[in-house]
Amino acid sequence: MEFDNFDTDSFLRDHWQKKPLLIRNPWRNWQNPLEPDELAGLACEEEVESRLICQTAKGWEMEQGPQHEDRLGGLSESHWTLLVQAVDHHVPMVADLIAPFRFIPNWRIDDVMVSLAADQGGVGPHFDQYDVFLIQGLGRRRWQIGPHCDGDSPLVPHEDLKLLAEFEATEEWVLEPGDILYVPPGIAHNGVAVGSDCMTYSVGFRAPSRADLLGHFVDDMLDQIPEDDLYRDPDLAAQANPGEIMPDALARLHRMTLDSLADPRAFARWFGMFNSTPKYAEMDWRPETPVEPDEVRQSIADQALLSRNPASRLAFVGDGADAVMFFADGACFDCGAETADLARQLCGEDALVLDTALASVDAAIDLLTQLCNMGCIAFEGED
Protein backbone atom coordinates (compact mmCIF):
# COMPACT_ATOMS: atom_id res chain seq x y z
CA MET A 1 0.00 0.00 0.00
CA GLU A 2 1.17 3.52 -0.76
CA PHE A 3 0.23 7.07 0.11
CA ASP A 4 -1.09 9.17 -2.74
CA ASN A 5 -0.86 12.54 -1.03
CA PHE A 6 1.19 13.01 2.12
CA ASP A 7 3.89 15.60 2.86
CA THR A 8 6.51 13.71 4.86
CA ASP A 9 8.80 16.69 5.42
CA SER A 10 6.09 18.94 6.84
CA PHE A 11 4.80 16.12 9.04
CA LEU A 12 8.24 15.52 10.55
CA ARG A 13 8.82 19.23 11.01
CA ASP A 14 5.44 20.20 12.47
CA HIS A 15 3.92 17.10 14.08
CA TRP A 16 6.28 14.20 14.82
CA GLN A 17 6.53 14.01 18.64
CA LYS A 18 4.96 17.48 18.82
CA LYS A 19 1.21 17.44 18.19
CA PRO A 20 -1.54 15.18 16.81
CA LEU A 21 -2.58 15.22 13.18
CA LEU A 22 -5.71 14.00 11.44
CA ILE A 23 -4.87 12.68 7.97
CA ARG A 24 -7.93 12.16 5.80
CA ASN A 25 -7.56 9.08 3.56
CA PRO A 26 -4.09 9.59 1.99
CA TRP A 27 -3.96 6.14 0.38
CA ARG A 28 -3.73 5.58 -3.35
CA ASN A 29 -6.36 2.86 -3.04
CA TRP A 30 -7.39 1.93 0.50
CA GLN A 31 -8.42 -1.69 1.03
CA ASN A 32 -9.01 -3.20 4.45
CA PRO A 33 -6.35 -5.96 4.69
CA LEU A 34 -8.04 -8.22 7.25
CA GLU A 35 -11.60 -9.40 7.91
CA PRO A 36 -13.08 -9.38 11.44
CA ASP A 37 -13.44 -13.18 11.49
CA GLU A 38 -9.76 -13.59 10.56
CA LEU A 39 -8.71 -11.36 13.44
CA ALA A 40 -10.92 -13.28 15.85
CA GLY A 41 -9.31 -16.52 14.65
CA LEU A 42 -5.83 -15.14 15.33
CA ALA A 43 -6.89 -14.11 18.85
CA CYS A 44 -7.73 -17.74 19.59
CA GLU A 45 -4.22 -18.97 18.79
CA GLU A 46 -1.91 -19.82 21.68
CA GLU A 47 1.14 -17.95 20.40
CA VAL A 48 -0.71 -14.71 19.63
CA GLU A 49 -1.02 -12.00 22.29
CA SER A 50 -4.56 -10.68 22.64
CA ARG A 51 -6.89 -8.93 25.07
CA LEU A 52 -10.66 -8.60 25.30
CA ILE A 53 -11.86 -5.42 26.97
CA CYS A 54 -15.51 -5.02 27.95
CA GLN A 55 -17.32 -2.11 29.53
CA THR A 56 -20.02 -3.45 31.86
CA ALA A 57 -22.25 -2.12 34.60
CA LYS A 58 -19.46 -3.07 37.03
CA GLY A 59 -16.85 -1.08 35.12
CA TRP A 60 -14.01 -2.05 32.80
CA GLU A 61 -13.02 -5.71 32.54
CA MET A 62 -10.10 -7.25 30.67
CA GLU A 63 -9.51 -10.88 29.66
CA GLN A 64 -6.07 -12.00 28.47
CA GLY A 65 -5.85 -14.35 25.49
CA PRO A 66 -5.77 -16.78 23.97
CA GLN A 67 -9.45 -16.15 23.43
CA HIS A 68 -12.05 -18.89 23.06
CA GLU A 69 -14.33 -19.18 20.05
CA ASP A 70 -17.45 -19.66 22.18
CA ARG A 71 -16.63 -16.58 24.25
CA LEU A 72 -16.17 -14.38 21.19
CA GLY A 73 -19.29 -15.79 19.54
CA GLY A 74 -21.38 -14.99 22.61
CA LEU A 75 -20.38 -11.35 23.01
CA SER A 76 -23.05 -8.65 23.18
CA GLU A 77 -23.74 -6.21 20.35
CA SER A 78 -21.97 -3.29 22.03
CA HIS A 79 -19.28 -2.06 24.44
CA TRP A 80 -16.44 -4.51 23.78
CA THR A 81 -13.09 -4.38 21.99
CA LEU A 82 -10.77 -7.20 20.92
CA LEU A 83 -7.09 -6.22 20.70
CA VAL A 84 -4.57 -8.42 18.90
CA GLN A 85 -0.86 -7.57 19.06
CA ALA A 86 1.75 -7.93 16.29
CA VAL A 87 -0.72 -8.97 13.60
CA ASP A 88 1.88 -7.91 11.01
CA HIS A 89 3.97 -10.92 12.10
CA HIS A 90 1.26 -13.28 10.89
CA VAL A 91 -0.57 -11.51 8.05
CA PRO A 92 1.56 -10.18 5.16
CA MET A 93 -1.11 -7.70 4.01
CA VAL A 94 -1.14 -6.13 7.47
CA ALA A 95 2.68 -5.99 7.43
CA ASP A 96 2.36 -4.03 4.16
CA LEU A 97 0.73 -1.19 6.14
CA ILE A 98 4.13 -0.33 7.62
CA ALA A 99 5.77 0.46 4.25
CA PRO A 100 4.37 4.03 3.86
CA PHE A 101 5.75 4.91 7.30
CA ARG A 102 9.33 3.93 6.48
CA PHE A 103 10.31 7.61 6.66
CA ILE A 104 10.64 6.73 10.35
CA PRO A 105 13.77 4.53 10.84
CA ASN A 106 13.05 0.81 10.94
CA TRP A 107 14.67 0.43 14.35
CA ARG A 108 11.90 2.60 15.82
CA ILE A 109 9.08 0.37 14.50
CA ASP A 110 7.34 -1.86 17.04
CA ASP A 111 4.39 -3.67 15.47
CA VAL A 112 0.85 -3.36 14.13
CA MET A 113 -1.83 -3.96 16.73
CA VAL A 114 -5.36 -4.46 15.41
CA SER A 115 -8.55 -3.77 17.30
CA LEU A 116 -12.05 -4.99 16.50
CA ALA A 117 -14.86 -3.22 18.33
CA ALA A 118 -18.62 -3.51 18.58
CA ASP A 119 -20.76 -0.39 18.69
CA GLN A 120 -19.61 1.89 21.55
CA GLY A 121 -16.57 -0.32 22.11
CA GLY A 122 -13.28 1.21 23.22
CA VAL A 123 -10.51 0.90 25.77
CA GLY A 124 -11.22 4.11 27.67
CA PRO A 125 -9.31 7.41 27.83
CA HIS A 126 -5.58 6.78 28.18
CA PHE A 127 -2.15 7.87 26.99
CA ASP A 128 0.79 5.93 25.60
CA GLN A 129 4.54 6.42 25.89
CA TYR A 130 5.08 5.87 22.17
CA ASP A 131 4.10 7.37 18.82
CA VAL A 132 1.21 5.72 17.01
CA PHE A 133 -0.59 6.04 13.69
CA LEU A 134 -4.21 4.91 14.11
CA ILE A 135 -5.51 3.73 10.74
CA GLN A 136 -9.25 3.25 10.40
CA GLY A 137 -9.63 0.01 8.46
CA LEU A 138 -13.32 -0.80 8.60
CA GLY A 139 -16.35 0.95 10.06
CA ARG A 140 -16.14 4.26 11.91
CA ARG A 141 -14.56 5.42 15.15
CA ARG A 142 -14.89 8.68 17.07
CA TRP A 143 -11.53 9.86 18.40
CA GLN A 144 -11.16 12.47 21.10
CA ILE A 145 -7.82 14.11 21.84
CA GLY A 146 -6.98 15.56 25.25
CA PRO A 147 -4.03 17.26 27.00
CA HIS A 148 -0.50 16.02 27.52
CA CYS A 149 -0.13 13.52 30.39
CA ASP A 150 2.75 12.04 32.35
CA GLY A 151 3.50 9.70 35.23
CA ASP A 152 1.79 12.06 37.66
CA SER A 153 -1.55 12.08 35.82
CA PRO A 154 -4.23 10.46 38.04
CA LEU A 155 -5.46 7.04 36.91
CA VAL A 156 -8.58 5.02 37.64
CA PRO A 157 -7.73 2.24 40.14
CA HIS A 158 -7.58 -0.92 38.01
CA GLU A 159 -5.21 -3.87 38.14
CA ASP A 160 -5.11 -4.40 34.37
CA LEU A 161 -5.83 -1.08 32.64
CA LYS A 162 -4.25 2.36 32.92
CA LEU A 163 -7.24 4.63 32.35
CA LEU A 164 -7.19 8.35 33.00
CA ALA A 165 -9.30 9.44 35.96
CA GLU A 166 -9.80 12.84 34.33
CA PHE A 167 -10.25 13.39 30.61
CA GLU A 168 -11.43 16.51 28.83
CA ALA A 169 -11.42 16.41 25.03
CA THR A 170 -9.88 19.35 23.20
CA GLU A 171 -10.50 18.00 19.67
CA GLU A 172 -12.79 15.37 18.20
CA TRP A 173 -13.17 13.62 14.83
CA VAL A 174 -14.97 10.64 13.34
CA LEU A 175 -12.61 8.55 11.21
CA GLU A 176 -13.81 6.72 8.10
CA PRO A 177 -12.01 3.81 6.39
CA GLY A 178 -8.53 4.90 5.25
CA ASP A 179 -8.35 7.90 7.59
CA ILE A 180 -5.33 8.13 9.93
CA LEU A 181 -4.85 9.83 13.28
CA TYR A 182 -1.28 10.41 14.46
CA VAL A 183 -0.89 10.66 18.25
CA PRO A 184 2.47 11.62 19.83
CA PRO A 185 3.70 10.16 23.13
CA GLY A 186 1.92 11.38 26.24
CA ILE A 187 -1.17 12.79 24.50
CA ALA A 188 -4.45 11.65 26.04
CA HIS A 189 -6.87 10.05 23.59
CA ASN A 190 -10.09 8.10 23.59
CA GLY A 191 -11.56 6.10 20.70
CA VAL A 192 -15.14 4.81 20.60
CA ALA A 193 -16.64 2.71 17.81
CA VAL A 194 -19.56 4.21 15.92
CA GLY A 195 -21.46 1.14 14.76
CA SER A 196 -20.38 -2.49 14.55
CA ASP A 197 -17.33 -4.13 12.91
CA CYS A 198 -15.03 -1.20 13.69
CA MET A 199 -11.43 -2.16 12.90
CA THR A 200 -8.42 0.03 13.67
CA TYR A 201 -4.79 -0.70 12.80
CA SER A 202 -2.30 0.83 15.24
CA VAL A 203 1.17 1.22 13.73
CA GLY A 204 3.22 1.68 16.89
CA PHE A 205 6.77 2.94 17.37
CA ARG A 206 9.13 2.29 20.25
CA ALA A 207 11.69 4.41 22.03
CA PRO A 208 14.07 2.90 24.60
CA SER A 209 14.04 4.53 28.02
CA ARG A 210 17.19 5.84 29.62
CA ALA A 211 16.76 3.20 32.36
CA ASP A 212 16.50 0.38 29.80
CA LEU A 213 19.55 1.56 27.87
CA LEU A 214 21.70 1.98 30.95
CA GLY A 215 20.53 -1.17 32.71
CA HIS A 216 20.91 -3.53 29.77
CA PHE A 217 24.16 -2.00 28.50
CA VAL A 218 25.78 -2.15 31.94
CA ASP A 219 24.64 -5.76 32.35
CA ASP A 220 26.25 -6.63 29.02
CA MET A 221 29.48 -4.81 29.90
CA LEU A 222 29.69 -6.53 33.29
CA ASP A 223 29.93 -9.90 31.56
CA GLN A 224 33.03 -8.69 29.72
CA ILE A 225 34.98 -7.11 32.60
CA PRO A 226 37.63 -9.41 34.16
CA GLU A 227 37.41 -10.01 37.91
CA ASP A 228 40.96 -8.69 38.49
CA ASP A 229 40.14 -5.26 36.99
CA LEU A 230 40.39 -3.50 40.37
CA TYR A 231 40.94 0.03 41.60
CA ARG A 232 44.64 0.92 41.86
CA ASP A 233 46.36 3.89 43.55
CA PRO A 234 50.15 3.36 43.35
CA ASP A 235 50.74 7.11 43.90
CA LEU A 236 48.81 7.18 47.18
CA ALA A 237 49.92 9.93 49.58
CA ALA A 238 49.17 10.36 53.28
CA GLN A 239 46.15 12.56 54.00
CA ALA A 240 45.20 14.63 57.02
CA ASN A 241 41.89 12.89 57.72
CA PRO A 242 41.64 9.19 56.80
CA GLY A 243 37.84 9.46 56.74
CA GLU A 244 37.78 11.71 53.66
CA ILE A 245 37.36 10.30 50.16
CA MET A 246 39.75 12.58 48.31
CA PRO A 247 38.84 14.33 45.04
CA ASP A 248 41.59 12.55 43.07
CA ALA A 249 40.30 9.16 44.27
CA LEU A 250 36.74 10.08 43.29
CA ALA A 251 37.95 11.24 39.88
CA ARG A 252 39.82 8.00 39.34
CA LEU A 253 36.80 5.90 40.44
CA HIS A 254 34.49 7.94 38.22
CA ARG A 255 36.81 7.55 35.23
CA MET A 256 37.17 3.83 35.96
CA THR A 257 33.39 3.48 35.81
CA LEU A 258 32.77 5.63 32.74
CA ASP A 259 35.68 4.26 30.71
CA SER A 260 33.90 0.92 30.55
CA LEU A 261 30.92 2.59 28.87
CA ALA A 262 32.77 5.06 26.67
CA ASP A 263 33.61 2.93 23.63
CA PRO A 264 31.22 4.08 20.83
CA ARG A 265 31.83 0.97 18.72
CA ALA A 266 31.09 -1.34 21.65
CA PHE A 267 27.90 0.59 22.33
CA ALA A 268 26.87 0.42 18.66
CA ARG A 269 27.39 -3.35 18.59
CA TRP A 270 25.49 -3.83 21.84
CA PHE A 271 22.60 -1.56 20.83
CA GLY A 272 22.21 -3.17 17.44
CA MET A 273 21.89 -6.59 19.05
CA PHE A 274 19.66 -5.30 21.86
CA ASN A 275 17.34 -3.38 19.56
CA SER A 276 17.07 -6.11 16.93
CA THR A 277 15.97 -8.77 19.41
CA PRO A 278 12.53 -9.92 18.24
CA LYS A 279 9.44 -8.72 20.09
CA TYR A 280 8.50 -12.35 20.73
CA ALA A 281 11.87 -14.04 21.05
CA GLU A 282 10.28 -17.35 21.97
CA MET A 283 8.69 -17.71 18.53
CA ASP A 284 10.54 -20.19 16.32
CA TRP A 285 10.49 -19.16 12.66
CA ARG A 286 13.23 -21.55 11.52
CA PRO A 287 12.50 -23.76 8.50
CA GLU A 288 11.60 -27.38 9.22
CA THR A 289 14.48 -28.54 7.02
CA PRO A 290 17.74 -26.52 7.19
CA VAL A 291 18.60 -24.64 4.02
CA GLU A 292 21.86 -25.67 2.32
CA PRO A 293 24.31 -23.23 0.67
CA ASP A 294 23.76 -24.85 -2.73
CA GLU A 295 20.03 -24.16 -2.43
CA VAL A 296 20.78 -20.49 -1.78
CA ARG A 297 23.09 -20.36 -4.82
CA GLN A 298 20.41 -21.92 -6.99
CA SER A 299 17.73 -19.53 -5.73
CA ILE A 300 19.93 -16.56 -6.60
CA ALA A 301 20.69 -17.99 -10.04
CA ASP A 302 16.96 -18.57 -10.63
CA GLN A 303 16.23 -14.94 -9.64
CA ALA A 304 13.87 -16.15 -6.92
CA LEU A 305 12.22 -13.42 -4.86
CA LEU A 306 13.81 -13.03 -1.42
CA SER A 307 11.43 -11.87 1.32
CA ARG A 308 12.04 -10.78 4.88
CA ASN A 309 10.07 -12.34 7.71
CA PRO A 310 7.85 -9.50 9.04
CA ALA A 311 8.59 -10.69 12.58
CA SER A 312 12.36 -10.25 12.08
CA ARG A 313 14.26 -7.09 12.92
CA LEU A 314 17.16 -6.18 10.67
CA ALA A 315 19.44 -3.15 10.97
CA PHE A 316 23.01 -2.09 10.29
CA VAL A 317 25.59 0.37 11.56
CA GLY A 318 28.44 1.67 9.43
CA ASP A 319 31.78 0.26 10.55
CA GLY A 320 34.38 2.01 8.42
CA ALA A 321 34.45 2.88 4.75
CA ASP A 322 33.46 -0.51 3.30
CA ALA A 323 32.10 -2.45 6.27
CA VAL A 324 28.96 -2.63 8.41
CA MET A 325 27.85 -4.33 11.56
CA PHE A 326 24.69 -6.12 10.42
CA PHE A 327 22.10 -7.09 13.04
CA ALA A 328 19.43 -9.74 12.61
CA ASP A 329 17.14 -10.85 15.43
CA GLY A 330 19.69 -10.16 18.16
CA ALA A 331 22.72 -11.51 16.29
CA CYS A 332 25.58 -9.44 14.88
CA PHE A 333 27.38 -10.20 11.60
CA ASP A 334 30.54 -8.28 10.69
CA CYS A 335 30.17 -7.61 6.98
CA GLY A 336 33.19 -6.51 4.99
CA ALA A 337 33.39 -5.25 1.42
CA GLU A 338 31.99 -8.50 -0.03
CA THR A 339 28.73 -8.43 1.92
CA ALA A 340 28.21 -4.86 3.19
CA ASP A 341 26.02 -3.84 0.24
CA LEU A 342 24.00 -7.03 0.60
CA ALA A 343 23.39 -6.25 4.28
CA ARG A 344 22.23 -2.74 3.38
CA GLN A 345 19.84 -4.15 0.79
CA LEU A 346 18.36 -6.64 3.23
CA CYS A 347 17.73 -3.85 5.74
CA GLY A 348 16.27 -1.45 3.20
CA GLU A 349 13.80 -3.66 1.33
CA ASP A 350 11.13 -6.12 2.45
CA ALA A 351 11.46 -8.15 -0.75
CA LEU A 352 14.04 -8.15 -3.54
CA VAL A 353 15.71 -10.15 -6.28
CA LEU A 354 19.45 -10.49 -5.74
CA ASP A 355 22.17 -9.91 -8.30
CA THR A 356 23.15 -13.26 -9.81
CA ALA A 357 26.82 -12.36 -9.28
CA LEU A 358 26.31 -13.02 -5.55
CA ALA A 359 25.93 -16.73 -6.28
CA SER A 360 29.72 -16.92 -6.64
CA VAL A 361 30.50 -14.92 -3.46
CA ASP A 362 31.07 -17.42 -0.65
CA ALA A 363 30.73 -14.82 2.12
CA ALA A 364 27.34 -13.74 0.75
CA ILE A 365 26.14 -17.35 0.45
CA ASP A 366 27.25 -18.03 4.03
CA LEU A 367 25.40 -14.95 5.35
CA LEU A 368 22.21 -15.70 3.42
CA THR A 369 22.24 -19.34 4.47
CA GLN A 370 22.53 -18.38 8.13
CA LEU A 371 19.69 -15.86 7.81
CA CYS A 372 17.47 -18.42 6.06
CA ASN A 373 18.10 -20.95 8.82
CA MET A 374 17.34 -18.35 11.48
CA GLY A 375 13.99 -17.73 9.80
CA CYS A 376 14.80 -14.09 9.05
CA ILE A 377 14.48 -14.41 5.29
CA ALA A 378 13.22 -16.95 2.75
CA PHE A 379 13.41 -17.40 -0.99
CA GLU A 380 10.16 -17.83 -2.88
CA GLY A 381 9.28 -21.50 -2.97
CA GLU A 382 10.88 -22.33 0.39
CA ASP A 383 8.72 -23.55 3.26
UniProtKB/TrEMBL annotation:
EC number: 1.14.11.47
Pfam annotation, one family: JmjC_2
Stored InterPro entries: JmjC_dom (IPR003347), NO66-like (IPR039994), ROXA-like_wH (IPR046799)
Ranges in a coiled coil: none
TM stretches of this protein: none
All residue ranges annotated as the JmjC domain in the record: 93-222
Keywords: Dioxygenase, Iron, Metal-binding, Oxidoreductase, Ribonucleoprotein, Ribosomal protein
MF (Gene Ontology): 2-oxoglutarate-dependent dioxygenase activity; metal ion binding
GO cellular component terms given for this protein: ribosome
Necessary cofactors: Fe(2+)
Gene3D superfamilies on file: 50S ribosomal protein L16 arginine hydroxylase, Chain A, Domain 2 (3.40.366.30), Cupin (2.60.120.650)
Protein name: 50S ribosomal protein L16 3-hydroxylase
Originating species: Sphingorhabdus rigui
